[in-house]
TrEMBL record:
It holds the Pfam family Response_reg. It comes from Desulfofustis glycolicus DSM 9705. GO terms for molecular function: ATP binding; sequence-specific DNA binding. This is Two-component system, NtrC family, response regulator. GO terms for biological process: phosphorelay signal transduction system; regulation of DNA-templated transcription. PANTHER family: TRANSCRIPTIONAL REGULATORY PROTEIN (PTHR32071). Residues 143-372 form the Sigma-54 factor interaction domain. Transmembrane segments: none annotated. Residues 4-118 form the Response regulatory domain. Keywords: ATP-binding, DNA-binding, Nucleotide-binding, Phosphoprotein, Transcription, Transcription regulation. The modification 4-aspartylphosphate is found at residue 53.
Length: 448
């Protein structure tokens, strides 16, 4: 979508020239020849940037700056001033102008100034509404996200939520697999019944068997009383088996039998008890490779993997990182009794630029860290953990000398990485890279 520029300039020929020239550079421009008519058009036109001349027939450009700054502080104003009139330019900045450009206008310089102003407006709007957006953004239960990969996940989970079939949820550690499982449960007809979760990798084989299937008094040492297993505890609801790829191979036949027959026999008894439970499982491992290696039963795999839902890593979720950060900041601020309301522009760039190997869990931890250190309403780079503000993580991989590439190739790879993070938003990519859009275009054309 083209950025919209509202031009306020009393010279009709100048208006026409600016409108045509900006149109050729990818902007959408509309012009007005007086300050009052331009101001009146702001609400209906909803421009991204105002380009105003200082000298107007009714109110001057300085007053336009002041009114826009007071009424719409996130709408940037670029002022055109006479060449060499720095005092007027400084006064315009003090009146609230975002930038200024001197006449005669260099269209390339103007386009760059407008690009920066558009990006400023986009980021400012994003940062100021993030807390509200976290509440109103597309979501599924406790999951939030506006990125395409998350919308696709929401659509998939919505389709299968009320089917009752077994689902295998895959994804990296910390990506939010249990949150996805809870969303499936809360969107199903079982939502009023228990959601019971167990991590299969943290318990010994004996304890895991007892936890899942239950036991009777005297079944083993320390079995001082009868105890229901989690299959019975979750009756009517959902049982979530986290890290299922680590389930002991020796117990897998028993788990398969219980799932197939929908009856469980506690340790130490011959009695079986029916249950009605939906099974959800999750893993961060390549479970099909485990099947091929003989570490996981193929028949159990197919029983659990009726359908798969993959939770994408945070690095593939673009600007969702800021949306999630806002949610975590709001939660942490409430818990810590602080008045931290958002993230400043520089910190937002750091959050977008970081690869988040620990995914959503790491982001939550980082925001808790930042809120604890914050001295102002907005999180700054100084509040973030050092590994996020440094760039060392970008060079973590150690290459064999034969795999090393030129600086030019590494630069191109990094540019492509940033474009991937920003989901193709070249303006935001240029800002993160701290180069102007014209330079980014030139590099992209050269590499292609």
């Amino acid at each position: 979508m083209k950025a919209s520029i509202l031009i306020i300039e009393d010279d009709r020929d100048m208006c026409d020239m600016l409108s045509v020239a900006l149109g050729r550079r990818g902007f959408s421009a509309v012009a007005y020849q007086s300050g009052m008519s331009g101001l009146a058009a702001i609400d209906s036109g909803q421009p991204d940037v105002i380009l105003v001349d200082i000298n107007l027939p009714d109110i001057n450009g300085m007053e336009v700056c002041q009114r826009v700054s007071a009424d719409t502080p996130d709408l940037p104003v670029v002022v055109m001033t006479a060449f060499g009139n720095m005092d007027m330019a400084i006064e315009a900045i003090r009146a609230g102008a975002y930038d200024f450009i001197t006449k005669p206008v260099d269209m390339d310089m103007l386009a760059l100034a407008l690009d920066r102003a558009v990006q400023y407006r986009m980021l400012h709007k994003q940062l100021t509404v993030l807390s509200r957006a976290a509440e109103t953004a597309p979501n599924l239960d406790c999951m939030i996200g506006e990125s395409q990969v998350m919308r696709e996940l929401f659509q998939r989970l919505t389709k299968i939520a009320d089917t009752g079939i077994s689902v295998l949820i895959t994804g990296e550690s910390g990506a939010g697999k249990e949150v996805a499982a809870r969303a499936l449960h809360n969107l199903s007809r079982r939502k009023q019944q228990p959601f019971v979760a167990i991590n299969c990798s943290t318990l010994t084989e004996t304890l895991l068997e007892s936890e899942l299937f239950g036991h009777v008094k005297g079944a083993f040492t320390d079995a001082c009383s009868d105890r229901k297993g989690l299959f019975q505890e979750a009756d009517g609801g959902t049982l979530f088996l986290d890290e299922i790829a680590d389930f002991p191979l020796s117990l897998q036949p028993k788990l398969l039998r219980v799932i197939e027959e929908r009856r469980v026999r506690p340790i130490g008894t011959n009695s079986e008890y029916p249950f009605d439970v939906r099974i959800l499982a999750a893993t961060n491992r390549d479970i099909e490779a485990a099947v091929a290696a003989g570490e996981f039963r193929e028949d159990l795999f197919y029983r659990l993997n009726v359908i798969t839902a993959q939770v994408p890593p945070l690095r593939e979720r673009g600007a969702d990182r800021l949306l999630l950060a806002a949610r975590f900041i709001s939660d942490c601020s409430a818990r810590q009794g602080k008045q931290v309301t958002g993230i400043d522009k520089a910190a937002a760039k750091k959050i977008l630029n970081y690869s988040w190997p620990g995914n959503v869990r790491e982001l939550r931890n980082a925001m808790e860290h930042a809120v604890a250190l914050a001295d102002h309403q907005l999180i700054t780079p100084e509040d973030l953990p050092e590994k996020i503000t440094s760039q060392h993580h970008l060079l973590e991989s150690v290459y064999h000398p034969a795999d090393l590439v030129s600086l030019e190739e590494m630069t191109n790879r990094y540019i492509n990485y940033i474009l991937g993070v920003t989901e193709g938003n070249q303006s935001l990519a240029a800002q993160i890279l701290e180069i102007d859009r014209k330079t980014l275009y030139r590099r992209l054309n050269k590499s292609s």
